[in-house]
Write a structure and sequence with these properties.
Elements (H helix, E strand, L loop, with lengths): L2 E6 L4 H12 L6 E8 L1 E8 L2 H10 L6 E7 L14 E2 L5 E9 L2 H10 L11 H13 L3 H10 L3 E9 L6 E6 L4 E5 L2 E5 L11 E4 L4 E5 L6 E4 L4 E2 L21 H7 L1 H9 L3 E2 L4 E2 L8 H5 L3 E6 L1 H18 L3 E5 H4 L10 E7 L5 H12 L3 E6 L5 H5 L2 E4 L12 H20 L4 H22 L2 H10 L5 E6 L3 H16 L2 E6 L17 E4 L6 H12 L5 E6 L11 E5 L8 H18 L18
Parallel strand pairs: 17-18, 17-19, 19-20, 20-21, 22-23, 22-24, 24-25, 25-26
Antiparallel strand pairs: 1-4, 1-10, 2-3, 2-4, 5-6, 6-7, 7-8, 8-12, 9-10, 9-11, 12-13, 13-14, 15-16
Helix pairs in contact: 4-5, 7-13, 7-14, 9-13, 9-16, 13-14, 14-18, 15-18, 16-18
Bound molecules: 2-deoxy-2-amino glucitol-6-phosphate (AGP).
Length: about 600
């Protein structure tokens, strides 16, 4: 949420800043700006996506070798040029960029206004530059002034400040919003996301909450804690495949990421799944293996799509590993006073590893003595670092705001985790081998479903008039119904609801008529006949039905309006296949409605505010 980047070094700052913003655009795209210090601070900002800023920069690129840049996802104040960052103080000698929310901004703003400061934006962030103006006036050292500023802020922040009287220096602070420092030769970078500067740095330092840093060309960063203790931190070398951050030949990141799913499922399994024995190993869980044997309850915490992956995991882990599982929305977890003890493991599922709600849930679980685990995609992210142990999903960079390949790898990891727990508990070897061997076949089966794109596009064409839709499924397919509905609403802005098919008759059925289609996910599983009854209830009320079922299921053809046939698999693994047509359907529908599926309205990737 909001992307920030800063550069100080020996080269021109603007090209780095602009290129960095393009890579960070998925974090917010309602406005953007850059500020460069060269005797004076020059700021260029524009409303809209980065291409709007780029147009303005063509006419007026600020020169200088020290600068900051920001792409915004609005929290306080409408998307506009005035609300775009960087924000200045009254003198114009200070510029700041901020990711997060300053919770006490109203009180601070009122007090600053009374003391004569003039605000130019509606943002919470602007208080930072004005406060810094005051603390600098009252203090001899800029570092102390920066520290005094931070002492007055409540809330979450990743901040980078630039001060005219200290050319070449960037002042950086982290509290709740990710900040990574990078270096190559004499050049120094700061960014909200390591991948955005991956091409330009040799290694990175992850700042933790409460840490501050001062960056200058050629020098090691000065890093200190909020208790004013100077610290030195480890540099991490990470091997990035930067090609994943480009769309390649695809029209959208979302399309590219859907097409990558067969490969990323293989990556997730590689070196972990031993199909002939029906077991899964995770290097990242070895250290806590003994403690995991004592766990009698698993709580999964996650948000959005990752939460739905958790719901699939609940079915898998209870059914086949016999471990009691609860899945909780991370945003609710810590406020509802959960009962946790040493025998509880709390598992966070997250693509970004930075989602504020999920991070807060993990911290809460830790303070209550639970073992904390993560299924995380981004290496080195905060949740990956703060959990006791975990599994990387290896999906690579996911840039499309609508999560697709990350979801599929999360479910793959959960399937393997089921084998991992199950073989230590009561899962029979023969059943485990059956599951594991089927899991190995999943990439090829996903590949064959992706080839159905033309058929699914034709279906989207046929139903492009729809303004509402139900996604329905039972047991393993219920979470896929929720996820399918989320995908459709977030990128095509069509109202969609996901329900367990059995719930329809308890209320939502009232909405069904000939203008209200249902997408029913009904592989031939344990509850297939029951789902057919639910389909009959919809058809009796003239509701159009699109069914997603197994190849070879011809009986259903006459019961519904349209059918998407997909390969069969083990019941536990079926969500890995049934989710794919729902993703393709949402994508095609988004295009037909004239939207950019990579940049859904009002949304951003990595939700780093509560
Ligand atoms: C779904 O397409 C979304 N992008 C969203 O629901 C996302 O899954 C959620 O915000 C959680 O993000 P995380 O996996 O990075 O924690």
């Amino acid at each position: 949420m909001c992307g920030i980047i800063g550069y100080t070094g020996t080269q021109e700052a603007s090209p780095f800043l602009l290129a960095g913003l393009k890579r960070l655009e998925y974090r917010g795209y309602d406005s953007a700006g850059i500020g460069v210090l060269n005797k004076e601070i020059n700021i260029v900002r524009a409303q809209g996506p980065i291409c709007e800023l780029e147009k303005t920069l063509v006419k007026n690129t600020p020169d200088g070798s020290c600068g900051i840049a920001h792409t915004r996802w609005a929290t306080h104040g409408v998307p506009s040029e005035a609300n775009a960052h960087p924000h200045r103080d009254c003198s114009g000698d200070i510029a700041i960029i901020h990711n997060g929310i300053i919770e006490n901004h109203l009180v601070l703003r009122r007090a600053l206004t009374l003391r004569g400061h003039v605000f130019k934006s509606q943002t919470d962030s602007e208080v930072i530059s004005h406060l810094l103006e005051e603390t600098i006036a009252d203090t001899d050292s800029l570092q102390d002034a920066f520290e005094q500023l931070l002492g007055q802020l409540t809330g979450a922040y990743g901040i980078v400040a630039m001060i005219k009287s200290s050319p070449g220096t960037l002042f950086v602070a982290r509290m709740g919003s990710p900040i990574v420092l990078g270096r190559r030769d004499g050049d120094r970078f700061v960014c909200s996301d390591a991948t955005a500067m991956a091409d330009w740095v040799d290694d990175v330092i992850y700042l933790d909450d409460g840490e501050r840093a001062l960056l200058q060309p050629n020098n090691e960063p000065i890093i200190w804690t909020k208790e004013s203790e100077n610290i030195s931190k480890q540099h991490h070398t990470i091997s990035w495949d930067t090609s994943v951050a480009s769309k390649k030949r695809y029209a959208h990141f979302m399309l590219k990421e859907m097409m990558e799913q067969p490969k990323v499922v293989e990556d997730t399994m590689r070196g972990r799944l031993i199909a002939q024995k029906g077991i899964a190993h995770f290097g990242g869980l070895e250290d806590v293996r003994e403690r995991l044997r004592e766990i009698d309850r698993l709580i999964i915490v996650a948000c959005g799509t990752a939460y739905y992956a958790g719901c699939v995991g609940e079915y898998m882990l209870e059914h086949y590993a016999g471990i009691p599982v609860e899945v909780e929305l991370a945003s609710e977890f810590r406020y509802r006073h959960p009962v946790i003890n040493r025998h509880t493991a709390v598992l966070a599922i997250t693509q970004s590893g930075e989602t504020a709600d999920t991070l807060a849930a993990i911290r809460e679980a830790k303070t209550q003595g639970a073992l904390t685990l993560g299924i995380v995609n981004v290496p080195g992210s905060t949740i990956a670092r703060e959990t006791d142990a975990g599994i990387y999903t290896r999906a690579g960079s996911e840039i499309g705001v609508a999560s697709t390949k990350a979801f599929i790898t999360q479910v793959t990891a959960l399937a393997m985790l089921t084998l991992f727990f199950g073989r230590d508990r009561n899962l029979e070897e023969t059943e485990a081998i059956k599951i594991a061997k089927e899991l190995e076949l999943i990439p090829d089966k996903i590949e064959s479903i992706l080839k159905l794109r033309p058929q699914i596009k034709a279906l989207a064409d046929k139903y492009q008039w729809m303004q509402n839709a139900f996604f329905l499924g039972r047991t393993y397919q219920a979470p896929i119904a929720y996820e399918g509905a989320l995908k459709l609403k977030e990128i095509s802005l069509i109202h969609a609801e996901g329900y367990s098919a059995g719930e329809l008759k308890h209320g939502p059925l009232a909405l069904i008529d000939e203008r209200f289609p249902s997408i029913v996910i009904c592989p031939r599983d344990e509850v297939y006949e029951k789902t057919l009854s639910n389909i009959a209830e919809i058809k009796a009320r003239k509701g159009p039905v699109i069914a997603i079922t197994d190849i070879g299921n011809t009986d259903i053809v006459e019961l519904v309006d349209d059918v998407i046939h997909i390969p069969s698999t083990h019941e536990m693994l079926s969500p890995l296949l049934t989710a794919i047509p729902t993703q393709l359907f949402a994508y095609e529908m988004s295009l037909l409605q004239g939207y950019d599926p990579d940049k859904p309205r009002n949304l951003a990737k990595s939700v780093t505010v509560e």
